[in-house]
Each structure stands twice: as structure tokens, then as C-alpha cells.
Design goal:
By secondary structure, the protein is α/β, with parallel strands linked by helices. It contains 5 helices and 23 strands.
Length: 429
């Protein structure tokens, strides 16, 4: 991280915090770095490695920030002012002891437990660094949090956060767009308003909530329109508005996403972005993803199956959203049938057109299907199907239906379900 000292025009190649550490190591005072005789011997605790109790006094093995592990020192509790790190240390210890079904030994930790606490501290650092990186990369309002209370896995490898489609090798896209001349698209739209494309009514109400049926395309105003950025027909293009958390699931489904805020029904949540590749390339990658038991391929088959979005290595937070299932029991009177597995997603996918009206290249947007509480996991059904009535309505409404029935984009490949239910359909699709 490059930073500047106050009044200095030269960008440092190391952080200010690292410069402070160097000053203390070399016993050098620096007014600008606020390293003086009074605080020269103040060192920052990076994390706590071990614990013991001798004659009633508590001691912690400290890893000092900026120093190697070989320079760790045992320090009495009275010397430590890192209250947050102390709480995390004991929380990690208690959680691991519960997992091992052991009681806390207040005198001395065994080697394996101490090793686990160090690994957990290092993992927390890696996840915090990744969280900061994600928030540096995002261009949307909603913040991103990262949490793993399940295992010692760190950030996923070979994944780059992007905010918009990334065009794959060998693909040349030509932007096709026309703008409207409305100054009040919702209250007083003129003929040819973007929202009226394909004979559809305005997609949103005055609170930005969707009012179209699943399968109908959304046409938002774009950069060529006369209306301003506050136009109610600009929702998806404003990006993610909610704080979301990437978290490790406890039932073997890998990473998932939960909302940190309440989300109203029919609200825009996020886009599915990734690398745009040809269908032929998607077939090749799909065979590899099949063997790995995961898929990030979305076919852009609104009217023609030409392009696919691959979010395996380039994507946004939607990369981590899981398939949804719930277990229900059907009861009639006093008799109940066997449990059955059904999908119960709280997100629905829509095709969206903004600055590019090429019907082969819709943007993929997730909208909430119901009210979603803070802390609830966000999910969608990989095997999305339209209601026949809605599908027929969409067929009649759309000018683009000549080449095929438009509907929600479909994620491809056969993925094994890990719910563990006897009556599970075994595959998500």
C-alpha cells in the first residue's frame, strides 16, 4: 500500500505503519511518524499465540507486529492493552474446546490447541485483508464483509472481483443503445421511453421495487437518455445497495452470502457478472467444472444461445450465492407424507438491458422474491422455471420472441446436491 507523509509529495513504497515499526526497530525518533522517546518502546500486538498461568498470574505468548515469530515473547496480562485480541483469543479457544468436547484448562494449553489458535489468528488476518481488498475493488454503495466460523479456510484462490462484464478473448462486442427524451420517465413518459421497449410497462414503482412478472425483460434508461441519475428507471445500474456478507456455510456448501440488512420484496439485490465467453468455450469449461462439482456458467439465451457468462475466476459477490432448498412435510389431516425436497429461493433472475440493447447480451439481475430478514442467506434456484401462464404472457408481449421464448437466464451443468436428505433429488439440476 503506497502512502504519503504529511507535507511530503513522495509516495512511500511501504505503509506508514511499517515505517513506524522500522523506526522502533532502528531506535530512530521521527516527528512526522509520531515516534518519540515516550512511545519508542510501544509495540503493537499482532495476535496472541499461547496462554499459561503461573502462581495465579496470567501470561500470553505475543506475536509482535513487524517482527518474526522467533521474536515472540511471553507477556503478563497487565502489559497488554489489546482488549479486542484478547476477546477473540478466548472466543476461538472456547469454540475449539467445545468442538473437541473438552473443558478449558486454565493452567496451560496443549500444543495442538495452541497451534490451532495461531492458525485461526492468521486466517482472520487473511480474511480481513481480503475483505479490505473487496471493498477497495467495489464501485457500489453496499459494503462487503467476510466471515468464517466453520473451518480454517482462507480466501478462495484464483478469483478476481469485478463490477461489470469482462469480455473474453476473441470476442468483439458492439454497444447498441438508444435513449429516451423523457424528463420524468415515471410520471410523464413520452413515446419511445426506455421502459416501454418490447411493449412492457414501467418495470419499477416509485420506491424502486420491481413490478414485472418473472421472465419479462427490464429496460432501464441509459447514458443517452435525457433523464438524470435519479430517474426511477435506473435501479440495476446503481449497483448493490445493501451490506452483504460472504460466509462459510456449516453444511459443506462452501461459501455463501447473507444480507446484513432487511431487504424488501421485489428489490434489486445484485447482478451476476463474470467473463463473457462463447457457447463453444462454455462447453469446454463446463466439462472441467462438472468434474469439480461446481459451476459458474450462466447461458445468455434470451433469444439466441451465443454467449455465456463464466464467473469462476472473475465475478462479484454473486459468485458465492448458493442454490436454495428446503425440506417440507405435506400433511393431510393427521397423516403426513415423507419429507420432500423443494427449492425455495429468495432471489429471482431477470434479463436487464441498459446501455446495450443487443438481445444476445442481457445483464443478469437478482431481485428479492419476498421480504428478506437481516442475517438471512441469499439463494436462487439453479433450475429456474417459469410459470406457464407467465411464459405465455411474455411470449405475447415481447418483440424478441421470434427467435425463441425469452425467460430467465439458466445456469448450466449437472451439480450434485449435498443436502443429505433421503428423498433428495441428488442433483440440483
Amino acid at each position: 500500500m503506497a502512502e504519503n507523509l504529511k507535507g511530503c509529495s513522495v509516495v512511500c513504497k511501504v505503509s506508514l505503519n511499517q515505517l513506524q515499526i522500522l523506526c522502533r526497530q532502528e531506535r530512530v525518533f521521527c516527528q512526522q511518524l509520531e515516534v518519540s522517546k515516550k512511545n519508542l518502546n510501544d509495540f503493537e500486538v499482532e495476535y496472541l499465540c499461547d496462554y499459561k498461568k503461573i502462581h495465579g498470574k496470567e501470561f500470553y505468548l505475543v506475536k509482535w507486529k513487524g517482527y518474526s515469530e522467533s521474536e515472540n515473547t511471553w507477556e503478563p496480562r497487565r502489559n497488554l492493552r489489546c482488549v479486542k485480541l484478547l476477546k477473540l483469543f478466548w472466543a476461538d479457544m472456547d469454540q475449539e474446546l467445545r468442538r473437541r468436547k473438552k473443558r478449558r484448562n486454565v493452567t496451560k494449553l496443549d500444543i495442538s490447541l495452541a497451534s490451532y489458535l495461531v492458525q485461526k489468528a492468521k486466517q482472520r488476518q487473511l480474511l480481513q485483508c481480503w475483505e479490505e481488498q473487496l471493498n477497495t475493488m467495489r464501485v457500489h454503495k453496499g459494503r462487503i464483509f467476510v466471515q468464517n466460523d466453520v473451518d480454517l479456510d482462507g480466501p478462495p484462490k484464483d478469483f478476481t472481483y469485478i463490477n461489470n462484464y469482462k469480455v473474453g478473448d476473441g470476442i468483439v462486442l458492439t454497444e447498441v443503445a438508444v435513449g429516451c427524451e423523457c424528463t420524468d420517465c415515471l410520471g410523464n413518459p413520452v413515446n419511445g421511453c426506455c421502459a416501454g421497449a418490447s411493449l412492457h410497462r414501467f418495470a419499477y414503482n416509485d420506491r424502486g421495487q420491481l413490478r414485472l412478472r418473472a421472465g419479462q425483460p427490464i429496460y432501464e434508461c441509459n447514458s443517452r437518455c435525457f433523464c438524470g441519475p435519479d430517474c426511477p428507471n435506473r435501479v440495476v445500474q446503481r449497483g448493490i445497495q445493501y451490506d452483504l456478507c460472504i460466509f462459510k456455510t456449516a453444511n459443506g456448501r462452501g461459501w455463501g452470502v447473507r444480507t446484513m440488512e432487511h431487504i424488501r420484496k421485489n428489490s434489486f439485490v445484485m447482478e451476476y457478472v463474470g467473463e463473457i465467453i462463447t457457447t463453444e468455450e462454455a462447453e469446454k469449461r463446463g466439462r472441467i467444472y462438472d468434474r469439480q462439482g461446481a459451476t459458474y456458467l450462466f447461458d445468455l439465451d434470451y433469444v439466441e444461445d451465443v454467449y455465456t457468462v463464466d464467473a469462476a475466476h472473475y465475478g462479484n459477490i454473486s459468485h458465492f450465492v448458493n442454490h436454495s432448498y428446503v425440506i417440507v412435510i405435506l400433511c393431510r389431516g393427521q397423516l403426513c407424507s415423507n419429507d420432500i425436497l423443494i427449492c425455495n429461493p429468495n432471489l429471482q433472475v431477470y434479463n436487464v438491458f441498459i446501455n446495450n440493447l443487443d438481445e444476445r447480451l442481457p445483464r443478469i439481475a437478482f431481485f428479492s422474491t419476498r421480504h428478506i430478514k437481516a442475517g438471512e442467506e441469499l439463494t436462487f434456484d439453479y433450475k429456474m422455471q417459469l410459470d406457464p401462464v407467465d411464459a405465455e404472457s411474455t411470449r405475447m408481449d415481447s418483440n424478441f420472441s421470434i427467435a425463441g421464448l425469452p425467460g430467465s437466464p439458466k445456469i448450466r451443468v449437472r451439480v450434485e446436491c449435498k443436502c443429505g436428505v433421503e428423498s433428495c433429488r441428488k442433483y440440483l439440476f
